[in-house]
Amino acid sequence: MLEVLDTAGQEEYVSLRDQWIRDGEGFVLVYSISSRASFQRIKKFYSQIQRVKESAQAGSPTYPGSPSLSAPTSSGPAPVMLVGNKCDRVTEREVSTQEGAALARELGCEFVEASAKNCVNVEKAFYDVVRQLRRQRHNSSGGRSGDRKKDSGRSHTGGSGGTVKKSKRSGGKCVIL
User: Fold this and answer.
1) SS3 of the chain
2) What is the pLDDT of residues 127-157, one digit of tens each?
3) 15, 49, 118, 156: least surrounded by Cβ within 10 Å?
4) Are strands 26-32 and 80-85 parallel, antiparallel or unpaired?
């Protein structure tokens, strides 16, 4: 199972963002192809993810429920997927597909353009992050299967106002910034 936390990049969640990043095991960074400003914020979010994850690995104190206590040690950086959303808005495009792909290469992450309105590549973004997480877990566990962690049963309200669906067993947390 997967827990998804959507902050929608909203500023009212800034104080909680570091904690969510510490808890997150995979990240989907979303910008609108019809908003150059949202595209330009991606590097800031990516840098924040790297900073928080590096400080967590460097021995920052852990707390009950944090992935460092309950999940296997990952091999490598947390998986990140860059998503150019609203690709259905062709006439409003401010960010080219090539710019999105170039940024993804620069950040060392995967890239896809999507349309939530038309259900294009939305599932692909999540499936790809989960595949990366599974690959990391497989590599870090020496190929052992069954590396699942128990979940605390919490739920979060995302920046879009929707409550995130939670199950009792969770294979990981994915944060959308």
Assistant:
1) CEEEEECCCCHHHHHHHHHHHHHCCEEEEEEECCCHHHHHCHHHHHHHHHHHHHHHHCCCCCCCCCHHHHCCCCCCCCCEEEEEECCCCHHHCCCCHHHHHHHHHHHCCEEEECECCCCECHHHHHHHHHHHHHHHHHHHCCCCCCCCEECCCCCCECCCCCECCCCCEECEEEEEC
2) 999 999 999 888 877 765 444 443 333 333 3
3) 15
4) parallel
CA 134 from centroid of its chain's CA atoms: 14
Strands 172-176 and 80-85: unpaired
Q: What is the CATH number of domain 2-56+74-176?
A: 3.40.50.300
